[in-house]
Amino acid sequence: MKKPDFTILVCNSYRVAGDAQGFCSKQGAASLVQHLTEECSDRGINAVVTTTACFSVCSQGPVVVIQPNNYWYGEMTEDKLDEVLDALEEGKPVEEYLIA
Question: Are strands 47-53 and 64-67 parallel, antiparallel or unpaired?
Answer without folding.
Answer: unpaired
